[in-house]
Design brief:
Oligomer: single chain
Radius of gyration: 16 Å
Structural class: alpha/beta
Helix content: 25-40%
Shape: globular
Number of strands: 10
Strand content: 15-25%
Order of helices and strands: EHEHEHEHEEEEEEH
C-alpha cells in the first residue's frame, strides 16, 4: 500500500465480502487488521458474522482492541458512522449494494475523523481496492497463490508457480489466488 500501510482517513476496499464470504478476501482482511492492531490501533468489524474472536486472535489481532458487530441490522450506516467516530480501522460488510449518497457520507466522515474505512465488498469511491479469487489448479501459472488455512491465516505466497499442491481451505478443488489488480485513486498515489 502507498505509505507502507493504511493511511488515516483513507478507504481501502477488500473486494469479496458477503458475495463470497469464504473467499480469499477474508485472509486479506485479517492481514490488514492484524498489522493495524499490532501497531496499537483499535479495530471494528461490522456485518461479518463468520468472523469470530478465535480467527481474529490467531491472526494477531488484539482482542482487547477489537469490536465485533456481526449483525448490525437495517441501520448499519448508523453503526458504521458511530464506530468511525471512535475507532482507528472500521471494516464494513454491507448487505447488498450501497447507495452512493451513503458511501460518500461514510467516506467523508472517515476522512474527517482520520479513520481507515475498510469496506468488505464492492464500494464505489474507495481510495484502494484489493482482491483475491478462487481459481482452478491448472491456472496457477498466471497468478500469485496464497497459502491460507481455514482460520484465514496466510502462511505464505507463491508467485506464479508452474504447479502447486496448495488448495483453498474453503474448496479443496480450487486455489486461492491474488488477482494482482490493485486500484488506486490519484489522491492516494499523488499527494
Amino acid at each position: 500500500l502507498p505509505g507502507r500501510g493504511l493511511r488515516r482517513g483513507s478507504t481501502v476496499s477488500v473486494a469479496t465480502g458477503r458475495s463470497q464470504p469464504a473467499g480469499g478476501g477474508t485472509s486479506l482482511l485479517l492481514a490488514l487488521l492484524s498489522e493495524a492492531s499490532r501497531t496499537g490501533s483499535w479495530c471494528a468489524v461490522v456485518g461479518v458474522p463468520a468472523l469470530g474472536a478465535i480467527a481474529a486472535a490467531e491472526s494477531g489481532i488484539a482482542l482487547d482492541r477489537l469490536a465485533l458487530v456481526p449483525n448490525p441490522g437495517p441501520e448499519w450506516p448508523t453503526v458504521v458512522a458511530a464506530l468511525i467516530d471512535g475507532v482507528d480501522v472500521v471494516v464494513a460488510a454491507v448487505p447488498g449494494g450501497v447507495a452512493p449518497s451513503i458511501a460518500s457520507r461514510l467516506v467523508a466522515r472517515a476522512r474527517q475523523r482520520g479513520c481507515v474505512l475498510v469496506p468488505f465488498g464492492p464500494w464505489d469511491g474507495a481510495d484502494v481496492t484489493l482482491a483475491t479469487i478462487q481459481i482452478n489448479p491448472d491456472e496457477v501459472y498466471r497468478f500469485g497463490v496464497v497459502d491460507a488455512d481455514r482460520e484465514s491465516r496466510v502462511h505464505g505466497f507463491e508467485e506464479k508457480p508452474k504447479e502447486t499442491s496448495l488448495r483453498s481451505p474453503y474448496n479443496a478443488e480450487k486455489v486461492a489466488a491474488s488477482m494482482g489488480i490493485y486500484l488506486f485513486s490519484t489522491d492516494v498515489l499523488i499527494p
